[in-house]
Write a structure and sequence with these properties.
Chain lengths: 111, 112
């Protein structure tokens, strides 16, 4: 099935560093969402973006909806060990609820 | 506020059997979507139900089916199980289809 191109696939960083990941698509989306998934759990919603160009923050997390509506990025500032997990981007089209997911970014934070 | 509840959390079946998974959405949420998560294919959309009607369907064979009850609870059924059906099945709910979806912790299905 169709998936978004999410990069990087994995990141190994030191505690306190900033992190950036992004997603690109050949399709236009009306909504971009970012989720985090911990082992043995379902994805947890971090940020939802609804307008092209929108920049939204949630604590140390900042995400932007690309102007072309075909991309989005997520930044995490001053990373901490509990940021470890897999981060997924997801795009939602106009015609209903179907989410198209990226492949995920595995984040490892070394204390 | 209770989140999305999926039961059972783990299930082991053999090829050829069928299975039913259950999902209770967040109170007030009328849309329920199902996704399959595997290491190879990632998260793939199965179908969405709203007010007891299937509104959207992904690219999965007819062995995968679902339904929604009047209280918005949903069930997903897989018949004639195959080894490749081993996956984490996730349910997500939202107030309406275009609102942010919140996920349960999934049912881990293993096929022997």
């Amino acid at each position: 099935g169709q998936q978004l191109n999410q990069s990087p696939q994995s990141m190994f960083i030191q505690e306190g560093e900033d992190v950036s990941m992004n997603c690109t698509s050949s399709s236009i989306f009306n909504t971009w969402l970012w989720y985090k998934q911990d082992p043995g759990e379902g994805p947890v919603l971090l940020i939802a973006l609804y307008k092209a160009g929108e920049l939204t923050s949630n604590g140390r997390l900042t995400a932007q909806f690309g102007i072309t509506r075909k991309d989005s990025f997520l930044n995490i500032s001053a990373s901490i060990p509990s940021d470890v997990g897999i981060y997924f981007c997801a795009g939602q089209e106009t015609s209903g609820s179907r989410l198209t997911f990226g492949e995920g970014t595995q984040l490892t934070v070394n204390p | 506020k209770a989140g999305v509840t999926q039961t059972p959390r783990y299930l082991i079946k053999t090829r050829g059997q069928q299975v039913t998974l259950s999902c209770s959405p967040i109170s007030g949420h009328r849309s329920v979507s199902w996704y399959q998560q595997t290491p190879g294919q990632g998260l793939q959309f199965l179908f969405e139900y709203f007010s007891e009607t299937q509104r959207n369907k992904g690219n999965f064979p007819g062995r995968f089916s679902g339904r929604q009850f009047s209280n918005s609870r949903s069930e997903m059924n897989v018949s004639t199980l195959e080894l490749g059906d081993s996956a984490l099945y996730l349910c997500a709910s939202s107030r309406a289809g275009d609102q942010p979806q919140h996920f349960g912790d999934g049912t881990r299905l293993s096929i022997l």
